[in-house]
Design brief:
429 residues, 16 helices, transmembrane transporter activity
């Protein structure tokens, strides 16, 4: 118990020590989370309500996914050329433009154009975020910072989702003649207006005094391609993403078809998944303190594998939902550690481009995994799908450990972290 309290005090001390830039970006991420939650909850319903069918909705989602993947490398190069601070600001403006188009027009090709623009902006935001946080934190606090950033965005998105679920009904109660598509549109635009407030803290960000000078695009790519760290991050990312990529796109359908769950039950299970995402992200520093960054990622991913398999074999919905929640917890427990480790081993002057390459590899694998998972379900059913996903996850954890176990002196870092937290010599409760 004393150990747990000491670790909590240490975590709070690290959070209070976050730099001004880090605090401003966290505030911006919190405001962006409102729009993120509302958009992911309501936008697909809005598209259907304005008269489009599921095939166009699938096309819109696919175009956005491909657009984000295509934009990844240019976004990384732009981030390294302009700096992460300008990348964050530009990514926010581009995202806002794309969402504004998507929420104000009804012509199909304009909706697709808006989706492409929004996807490019979101990609630039993602690519720039980790390098900026890494440049504005010390090694001792970095895991805590990535943990809080990941948890904050997800936690605030819950509020955005709840708002998106209730505000259209409120608008129609106040104005009974208001068409439902208009209520949806106003709800999305209002959420966007709240998130636009993130421009205030983003404009107050400052470049770090020790920021490395930018390289040219060719030199940046050369450094990335010659870096063993970057190559290993890309290759291990392909395997790490594949296990979940096979299964996760079909979880909702699986619960509905195999257990007869209704949309309300599935929504409740997904809400549980969001809660454990937050808990997993916040618990990441605790795991990193004990096992180090590489060991923590490998152990958390390995721990997620049995629950991924159990989802496909447990006979009762509550048990399968619990397995889904535990698998989600362990995956998000590993994410801040993976991000922290990535930023430590990538040369600072190419962090944006390297981050874009890993983003591209993950998303390409997720797309391939979704296609392959669908083919496997049609031919063999769900049980082989979950078994294969779990097996690949075990292999991915082992490959990650083998690839990176000697990149950092992990045990020494753990000992230093424990000494700094005043934990040396204490027993574990």
């Amino acid at each position: 118990m004393q150990t747990a309290l000491a670790e909590l005090r240490e975590h709070l001390r690290r959070v209070r020590a976050f730099s001004r830039n880090a605090r401003l970006l966290l505030l911006a991420l919190g405001l962006l989370g409102v729009s993120y939650g509302a958009f992911t909850t309501l936008f697909t319903l809005y598209i259907v309500e304005i008269g489009y069918s599921e095939d166009f909705l699938g096309l819109l989602v696919g175009v956005g996914t491909v657009g984000g993947a295509v934009a990844a490398l240019p976004a990384g190069l732009l981030c390294d050329r302009l700096g992460a601070r300008r990348g964050l600001l530009l990514g926010t403006l581009v995202t806002a433009l794309g969402i504004l188009i998507e929420c104000t027009v009804t012509i199909d090709w304009l909706l697709l154009a808006g989706g492409l623009i929004a996807a490019a902006g979101v990609t630039l935001l993602y690519v720039a975020q980790a390098p900026f946080l890494a440049a504005n934190s010390t090694e001792e606090e970095r895991t805590h910072l990535f943990s809080v950033a990941a948890a904050l965005l997800v936690a605030v998105s819950i509020a955005g989702s709840l708002y998106a679920g209730g505000f259209p009904k409120l608008l129609q109660a106040l104005w009974p003649s208001l068409p439902l598509p208009t209520a949806y549109r106003l709800t999305l635009l209002a959420a966007g207006a709240v998130s636009a407030g993130c421009l205030v803290p983003l404009l107050r960000l400052r470049d770090p005094a020790d920021a490395p000078p930018p390289l040219g695009s060719r030199a940046t790519l050369t450094v990335c391609l010659r870096s063993g760290a970057v190559r290993r991050l890309v290759l291990t990312g392909l395997v790490l993403a594949l296990g979940g990529g096979l299964v996760v796109p079909f979880v909702n359908v699986y619960f509905m078809r195999e257990f007869g769950a209704g949309s309300g039950t599935v929504g409740l299970i997904r809400s549980l998944g969001i809660v454990v995402q937050v808990l997993g992200s916040l618990a990441a520093p605790w795991l990193g303190l004990r096992l180090g960054l590489v060991g923590g990622v490998a152990a958390a991913r390995l721990a997620s594998a049995p629950f991924l398999v159990l989802m496909g074999f447990l006979p009762f919905l509550p048990a399968a939902a619990a397995a889904f929640a535990l698998r989600t917890f362990f995956v998000y427990l590993s994410d801040p550690l993976h991000t922290d480790f990535s930023m430590r081993i990538i040369p600072p002057e190419v962090r944006g481009t390297a981050n874009s390459l890993t983003f591209l590899s993950w998303n390409a694998t997720l797309a391939l995994g979704g296609w392959a998972g669908g083919q496997l379900i049609v031919r063999a059913g769900y049980e082989p799908l979950f078994l294969l996903g779990g097996s690949i996850t075990v292999a991915a954890a082992a490959i990650y450990w083998l690839a990176f176990r000697r990149f950092l002196p992990e045990p020494a870092r753990v000992r230093l972290a424990r000494a700094g937290a005043g934990l040396e010599g204490e027993g574990r409760s």
